[in-house]
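Need the bound structure for beta-D-galactopyranuronic acid, inputs here:
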Amino acid sequence: MTKKLHILISIVLIFHFTLKNNSCAQTGRPWRAPEKVVDKLSKSQPEFNYYEDKVPSYKLPDPLVRPDGRRIEKPEEWYSNRRNEILELFRENVYGRVPATPYEMSFDVRRTDPKAMEGNATFKQVHINIKSDNKTLVIRLYIFIPNKAPKPVPLFLLINNRDSAVADPSRNIKNEFWPAEEIVARGYGTAVFSNADIDPDNFDNFQNGIHGMLDRGERLGDSWGTISAWAWGASRCLDYFQTDRDVNSSKVAVVGHSRGGKTALWAGAEDTRFAMVVANESGCGGAALARRRYGETVARINSAFPHWFCSNYKKFANNEDAMPVDMHMLISLTAPRAVYITSADEDLWADPRGSYLSLYHSVPVFRLLGVGAELPFEMPPLNEPVISGKLAYHVRDGVHNLLLKDWNWFMDFADQVLKLKD
Ligand code: GTR
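Answer from helper R.:
Posting the output first, comments after.
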């Protein structure tokens, strides 16, 4: 009798622990900043905050409340008023306004190779020529179209803010930053351009690049900065895709890492033709909530990179609560299209928690516009993407970078949101 009871108790216990362990393995714990990294960064950069409990309390502006206090209740009100109001606030206070200077644009398909990537892809090299006032600027666009996939294909457009070799169109040098072979193997087209073709990434008082061509007269507080110029360049690539029969221009995802991630968000806000925005570790001036003042701050980004934003943005250095927007409102400008925000475990400079919260606080706008999305307040565990409706987020292990692991998750998400039938 006692022996039988023992056996029974053992079976119950084994069953109980197996279940418990399984459930732990499946759900994991919500991500938290690794203590070791927090301590290390706090020591090496004591002027920046990396402690969650030292984040100041703040109140976010509500994307669904108009300046007169009225609440937006219907999608039509968002589309006819509120969206534009928020877009204007970002133009005025953060990224600046694209000048109205006229220009001419032409596309020159310089080279086509139908047997690229060992016959798996067709390669195209396109020059986008922008002309104004006897000056010409060339955006070099490199495209791979999967040969086996049905045309037109959905496509990932990468804003390349790294050394041009990482996006080597000859594919002699391969880099996870742009894993073109892997993207093609999954049935997507992919294209890349260098942000420097549009505007070199250095402060020269806006003399070079597209600024040197289109800017007229004195610079104003809301004159466009370099991020706005790069985002404008991404839209010119989309103009080209609209002429290319191999590309489904209504299914283009714009992807950027870090400063490129900030650019991707702004490109998606300014240009609703982008079907999906991927902002990888975009941080301050990208997805991260400015009011949290965690890691990089508005003061620091403006002093280190005075050319990225419009000069009005400088008013919010150490004065974040005065901003009429915060970055959840930038993400809400993507709605009801798809958006993927990411962070990396050791990249606390870009504030993973603040980036996730930004996405979280944009959810009411997506829901108003009919996107069934729900995100938990707690973050997903490390290396476990959370996808809800048209929203996705992950924290990858490791440092600040764009890797194949990130891309694979972007493509899993795109399989759900871009590969749907028109
Ligand atoms: C850093 C900058 C970040 C981020 C990064 C990058 O130095 O502080 O905002 O943009 O550069 O682009 O890699």
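Comments: Residues 2-27 form the longest helix (26 residues). The beta strands are 104-115, 121-132, 135-146, 153-160, 189-194, 247-257, 276-280, 338-344, 386-388, 391-396.
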